[in-house]
Amino acid sequence: MSSTASACYKLIFYVPPRDLEAVKTAVFKTGAGEFPGGKYKQTCWETTGTGQFLPVKGAGANPAIGELLADGSAFHLERVEEVRCEILCTDRETAVKAVGALKRAHPYEEPAYEVYKLEDL
């Protein structure tokens, strides 16, 4: 990427394995995952790990995954297998569209994601 080229971004998100392909497909439809010059498309990097969260019943949490305690007073602490997926976005507009597609396709109430602006060093 030359100094006159537009800035690239990296979108990183976490998703249950069963939903990975559907979420990636939605994100790729925005043009994310294409390398500058168009020689490669639908590129990403994936790794599996464990996510943890505790839904807060009194705060209105409506988790896609989660069980209440036997007395119904609160949720259990959840630990779930997730895939971390990293996808390149060749410009800010694509990154914004990719995040929108991610939010629409993701099964979680609040999907975890990060966006980084990349520098050519």
From TrEMBL:
Naturally occurring in which organism (per UniProt): Tuber melanosporum (strain Mel28) (Perigord black truffle)
SUPFAM superfamilies in the cross-refs: NIF3 (NGG1p interacting factor 3)-like
Source superkingdom: Eukaryota
Coiled-coil regions listed: none
Lineage of origin: Eukaryota, Fungi, Dikarya, Ascomycota, Pezizomycotina
Entry protein name: ATP phosphoribosyltransferase
InterPro entries: DUF34/NIF3_sf, N-reg_PII/ATP_PRibTrfase_C
Gene3D superfamilies: 3.30.70.120
